[in-house]
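User: Show me sequence and structure for the first protein, then do the same for the second.

Assistant: Starting with the first protein.
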Amino acid sequence: MTRNNIPLLEFKNITVMNGQKKILDSLSLKLEEGENIAILGPNGSGKSSFIKTITREYYPLLQDTEVIFRIGGRETWDVFDLRSMFGIVSNDLAYAFSREMTAREVVLSGFFSSIGLFRHHITGEMERKTIEILKFLEVTHLIERKMTEMSSGEARRVLIGRALVHRPKTLILDEPTNSLDLHALHTFRTTCRKISRAGTGILLITHNLHDIIPEITRVVLMKDGRFCMDGPKNEILTDTNICNLFAVPVCIRKDDGYYYATGY
């Protein structure tokens, strides 16, 4: 819990329209500081739209019912102030950084919320913090390597470094393992577990069951723009629930704290 028992994030009856299409339908969710949670759903279920609502790219529809849209107990935020609350890694961000920038430049750009460095004033403290983060993520060997020369897994860890520069309370990972091979997936999951154990909350958005690290204790199922189930991981990740979510027969198997779907 945050100080004074105020949730880090609080949504109630959040509906978002894109033109004439309803892309989020009456979402309600509370996220506490330090909580590790996964939003699991098929492609097109509204998961990325949910993230864009958190970052104020999308705004909720005003309705007759009570609508709550608060971050840290506040309804009004400067977008730049949100950096101390949430660090974000998304596929859109990965695409934006697929260019001739080194790992050092990418992480430093996080201090300015920019795509690359321009005429920014870089302090010695920023440089020290960049080295500290790259060491924590075990990628100092990439510091002068360009993003275009990295594997997908290496680039993803560098983007996580960029997201951590402001010491956010929660790291938001939007479909983080797309394009990762088995080795990169293993390294990525190990990195996420390390971040969680260091005290940063994880909000994982995914359609892959195996992305859900053991430290995540709560799972929300999402389909057709709605949250359809929310609860403890072991109660939510069942054969019946996942079968209904993805409309395919599955058997859920648990192994060393991870959950896997088989039989489809």
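Switching to the second protein now.
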Amino acid sequence: MHNSTISTNEILEVWDWEMGLPTGESVARDVAHRDGIPHEAVHLWILRNVHMQPEILFQFRAPHKENYPNCLDITVGGHVPYGYCGNKVMKETNEEVGIVPDEKDLTDLGWYRYEEQTGTLFQRELQHVYLLRDDRDLFQYRFSDGEVTGIYAVGLGDLKRILAADTAIEVRGFNGREPVRKSITRADFHPQLFHRSMEAYMRVITGAATELAAGKPVTTRMPDLK
């Protein structure tokens, strides 16, 4: 779902859609998005638990983004460049929101098979999804790559309500300069978060976040790809 911060000429690795495995072949990102060629992506959702009020953080996409500008999206997300062997989600986290969490604090939620077709965009991603508990203040996040221009905290209860039905919710954010408060609805989010294809995905996110916020072992996982 989430577009990488790298140029559209980025080279990705082709993945087998049914098996959920890399093939070793390469493809240009724009070709992959035009022809629906499967590739790998990473997602990180950040949970804050401030004064016993759990919140999920959403990044605010820059106004110049080709797809879905000026909307709230997954905390961190991006494609994995062909041949990249480092910690993929940590790299994206540092680039997009300017923090470097401890790798041992990441909760691996598994993989999700995601497909989206809208006009000229045909996207098939095998998304490796992580969850992180991080209670730092919003003003400690940094947005230096130009692709993300802010971060917003959405109450976990409010997120569950807006996933069930469109409604207005109050959120707090930081735009890189000052704190922000505003009322938002579904129209302010990446629209695919509410699509039928993402129902199972979002149930996992809210379920795992509920467990983590309560200090319980996270047992909720993405459906098996096989």
